[in-house]
Amino acid sequence: MNHNYIKPNPWSIIEEGFDAERVKSSESLMSLGNGAMGQRANFEETYTGKTFQGSYVAGVYYPDKTRVGWWKNGYPEYFAKVLNAPNWIGINVNINGEALDLAKCNKVEHFRRELNMKEGWLSRSFTATLQNFVEIKVEVKRFLSLEMDELGAIEYKITPINNAAQIDFMPYLDNGITNEDTNWDDKFWDVLSVDHEGEQAFITSRTMKTHFYVCTAMQTQVSMNGSKIASEKTVNATNDKIEFTYKNEVSKGDSITMTKFGGYTVDRNHDKNDLVSVAKNTLQKACDLGFEALLQQQKQAWAKIWDMSDISIEGDVAAQQGIRFNIFHLNQTYSGKDARLNIGPKGFTGEKYGGSTYWDTEAYCIPFYMATKDHEVARNLLTYRYNHLEKAIENAEKLGFSNGAALYPMVTMNGEESHNEWEITFEEIHRNGAIAFAIFNYFRYTGDFSYIPEKGLEVLIAIARFWQQRATCSSQKNQYMILGVTGPNEYENNVNNNFYTNYIAKWCINYTLEMITKVKEGFSEDFARIKGKTKITDNELDLWKKVADDMYFPFSEAHNIYLQQDGFLDKELITVADLPKSQRPINQKWSWDRILRSPYIKQADTLQGFYFFEDHFSTEELERHFDFYEPFTVHESSLSPCVHSIQAAKLNRMEQAYEFYLRTSRLDLDDYNKEVEEGLHITSMAGTWMSVVEGFGGMRVKNDVLSFEPKIPKGWDSYAFKINFRNQILKIDVAQNGTSFKLEGDSDLTIMVNGKLVEISPNELVTV
Amino acid sequence: MNHNYIKPNPWSIIEEGFDAERVKSSESLMSLGNGAMGQRANFEETYTGKTFQGSYVAGVYYPDKTRVGWWKNGYPEYFAKVLNAPNWIGINVNINGEALDLAKCNKVEHFRRELNMKEGWLSRSFTATLQNFVEIKVEVKRFLSLEMDELGAIEYKITPINNAAQIDFMPYLDNGITNEDTNWDDKFWDVLSVDHEGEQAFITSRTMKTHFYVCTAMQTQVSMNGSKIASEKTVNATNDKIEFTYKNEVSKGDSITMTKFGGYTVDRNHDKNDLVSVAKNTLQKACDLGFEALLQQQKQAWAKIWDMSDISIEGDVAAQQGIRFNIFHLNQTYSGKDARLNIGPKGFTGEKYGGSTYWDTEAYCIPFYMATKDHEVARNLLTYRYNHLEKAIENAEKLGFSNGAALYPMVTMNGEESHNEWEITFEEIHRNGAIAFAIFNYFRYTGDFSYIPEKGLEVLIAIARFWQQRATCSSQKNQYMILGVTGPNEYENNVNNNFYTNYIAKWCINYTLEMITKVKEGFSEDFARIKGKTKITDNELDLWKKVADDMYFPFSEAHNIYLQQDGFLDKELITVADLPKSQRPINQKWSWDRILRSPYIKQADTLQGFYFFEDHFSTEELERHFDFYEPFTVHESSLSPCVHSIQAAKLNRMEQAYEFYLRTSRLDLDDYNKEVEEGLHITSMAGTWMSVVEGFGGMRVKNDVLSFEPKIPKGWDSYAFKINFRNQILKIDVAQNGTSFKLEGDSDLTIMVNGKLVEISPNELVTV
């Protein structure tokens, strides 16, 4: 662990004391987002210390020209990446002519920040003595509105302590921003206009190449001791920045406050010619309501979210804080309202991984959104891939596939592949499987079959086609093999017969065949449309079936386990426990070839297959595989501990399960991987949720029956969560002395608890 | 084949007719070099058409900052690359004020270029009608002197045909040059001074970072109808260029000639403060001798080279031209005088592959230089690696090896790795084997054991240590394996147990153990020094022996062959013959993953092992392996056909051997790979030589006996070559009716011909 400066608190992330070395970490941890926009916890005023400035608008990206050492056929020309958006939060402050800058003050005391997750706001307060010896108290609060998702609000209050002072607020909009993570130091934005009217200002700009239009806007207001005052301002506009200056004499002990509303309007939601007028209206509406009323709305909106998605834990504040931190950021990142958006691995907290969509969404995020939101949200995530089907087919064509076979991109913004490392881009093809699995999982959990005839089956067919074409027949074994792949464990490249990949490929084909039959039988109109569009024939389906039936799986008779890939047992099988600590993390200590020839597993791979297809294996089989693979797993991916936590819980190894749980839930808070400065691991946060609900809670759905096998880690008094199962809300409360269930709904629900059927009526409290 | 515009001619490369589309190809084909400097066949005068300007100074390189998409631990920060050197050949020409530019003339006729390989010069002649309707005849000849290797000479003659004309010659030196192939568009040169004195000019400059000092110099002279004239000049100097202007009125039918001497002096050979004075003296000496006398020297120098290294072929002019083209360029690239230099894959003909040293030198080039030069030349090539031993040990340390294990770089200029593709940089480790093999090969061929105790054994020990540490023990097979490698066939990456790699690793260890014993027994003083330095112990040697003894080799009982690597037979084994032509070359048509999972072989891999260690296998074994692997080989590396040609000849498949011979010998002349514009494949040219001498001639050395099994391709009347075997020169003349041998030496030599011992006395002609 890198640091543990965050105070334990069930509902807040609190930092006390100013430490310049922590600024970038806190900027990540305390990021705000509302699904439509995001903002790292950068200071409003000038800060000349180390900082990573980040403002993001959902869905606004730029195709950065690919940079590689050695070009390979099939690489994309561009890498779509999230863009640093114009800064709307900036408020420069001058105190008697000296810029307030925490990096340059004589003294900073009582520094405290709180990210209040319950209510969805960030506050900061401190007293500072400037170089000119003026002492001031500063109190700042800001939030990004959930209700009005084009809006953020800031209240910035200053009280001179030791003397009267001239306090100048210089709120601004700045489009002169760059990305930290760019390949060619390109400029990404064209500014089209810089305007102001009254206390409002607007910068309209357009991203280069992608031509997204964005209006960045602000409206400002000055108050003295809580009452609005008319403060004269001067305006300073350049070709990419506009700044208002309000100068005020403030007596010792009086408080002056700058209230700033700001945000973005984008042409994804409005006609590009209306962006300024929409922003104008939004700002005026916010101003009319006022900061406090908006904050009340914010609290209510978050209360509603928490009511459904909270997991409460009694008796372990670190665990409690961890899970809420995860749930909070997931909700900040993706609201599910817009099928054009998705969940980037770093959400709105950093630029790395291009802010794009990975298989993380299907493999880790969908269960969380499915259980804690209206099912439309998960459906939107599926639809996102349906809308990209054509591009996935084009992508496969570039790699030599035909006849409508689809390979979904490893990384994408708009459906086009934007990754460029052959061993991943071309070979980490298991991603196709997770996309099919999510369709199955959605139907299994929600019971909503309609998605499959409407959209899902077309995706499944294209994926099944890919697997059939990608498998090759080994004449010496007379079985189908998938050669040259990278599995979920990216510490193996270009291996043959990765168990997980082969297994999910076979499953995809069989599931698609099954769904074809179901749609054919029950949805003849849809079937006719799909058959016309995809031109599937019985001959083709026979071919698929042959591949699925004769799929090869590497297996060790000696260990009675499936092998992660061909040749795994030829490695030097030294467990992680016998690896000196000085050698870890191996991705920082070892050269790539050494990692590759080692047995070390970056993230669950064979065990990921056992997670997805738990039903297909006995508990004894799971245990054997867990016992074999876990000792070689270094968990150097954020997506690894959650799966192991769930399986450890399933195997009744609660101490181990709890250890993995802490590792996943406090990964960023405790900065296990020493990289939190770059942003948070958003997608793995959904895995944290799974490790409580599916791990400790043992929640599963099988044959339309919801089941639980609740367990509780040592030291916890109880934990509780709610889920939306088939539009019925069930509250589960697991305590040392039993588990209680309460149903919010209008009809009875039969669930299975520890293997026994339990009938629950609405509002009845059933304890088992 | 892309084009075949080069006229068949036994001694010259002749192009007739001007075609702007061929300019870049001809610039490569007709490159000049003298071991110390090189020059693409760029025009002296302005040319605004497509051209690739290239002037090179041996050993002057620049560490270009590495560019990768995804950084891996262990990658080098820099990629050393050959630099485009200042231009010394430039002579701009104005005719009545209009610049002569073949891309802009009204008419270009009788265009003819000849690279005369016998005498080592390049000529160009044409008549041109300018836009101002002046018609001129131009005749240019140039060469890079072998005798004075800091000097080149140009004679540029113009005759106005239809009218008198004012003809201005503007010879210049230009340091304002860039590389075509740079990662960051950096500037590479700092110009320190631009001077002139009389008819001489000098630019002194220094490469950035590496700080090589180079003086680029010229001296000019004007003649009319063959007699020197005093022509007034003006001088125009900028901060990186200097140009003289000579204006002359020339009557119709008179000829005016600019003679320009120029070249480079470098601080590798002189004190950096003396570069200008050395250049001055060289130029003055050249001027005093005159162009014609220097040209006579050049012819004599080449005659001497050809006397030893020529291969003459009667009855097949294409084959004859091909082999001489190869031998000519090899001699232009590397003279063997300087152990600090080596042979870049493109020599002085282009920038690609960084002009650096690859394993090509040891695997392909050494036999040629060993047989056609003084043995000191091959010894210098070995010493080059000895001098880099310390850096090879550092390189291995970066990858986790210890105790003096060495991994020689994949690509280097100064001993440091400068490649950055993990599957090659870290995994194409077989290169270490070729470096050890070259030490063995040198001793086998020259009989000079002294290199081994003096230098070679230290290299061998460091390489053996690498192999022992790199091999890992498979507990399930209880044998040593080498996991995660790329063999010579780069169309497989990160495979396990590449036969070639495992075999050469085992051989390296055994050979090193053998040499340790020999040195210990015969060279006790050297042994004491080496033991002190390397600290080898009996325990360590036992460890090596265990690895060598228990090395695993993938073998197929069904096919009775060694497998290229684990799992090779699981591929879909469709032969190249069954691959549609439209799919080739696969490296241009297929994505990388498709290439990797295919069975196609880029260059001899298992067969490369059979080539090096032919003695270890029976002819039947060779035949089985050849029959198995050849049908999957696409020969998309220039280094592939030569090995297959030698083996086809050994197997008495003369048609196939001849086909491969043409492919290797005319690879660039006929532009098989459609890339000759970028430069020539210099290192594979040595393979061409091998395919005649070792392939058709069947030359081998075994147990100190030189042997031949001469064969002759259909259609050839005869072929002849000379070799230096243990400082005796033997001429071999293979004709349809028998092979004759003639010895230039002072003692008898016993050779073996077709399995029978033959005694040859000096100057006796023995026909078998």
TrEMBL record, chains A, B:
The keyword Cytoplasm does not apply. Keywords: Hydrolase. Substrate binds at W359, D360, K602, Q603. GO terms for molecular function: carbohydrate binding; glycosyltransferase activity; hydrolase activity, hydrolyzing O-glycosyl compounds. Residues 699-759 form the Glycoside hydrolase family 65 C-terminal domain. Residues 324-690 form the Glycoside hydrolase family 65 central catalytic domain. Coiled coil: none annotated. It comes from the Bacteria. The active site is at E490. The keyword Cell membrane does not apply. Residues 14-267 form the Glycoside hydrolase family 65 N-terminal domain. GO terms for biological process: carbohydrate metabolic process. Pfam families: Glyco_hydro_65C (PF03633), Glyco_hydro_65m (PF03632), Glyco_hydro_65N (PF03636). Belongs to the glycosyl hydrolase 65 family. This is Glycoside hydrolase family 65 protein.
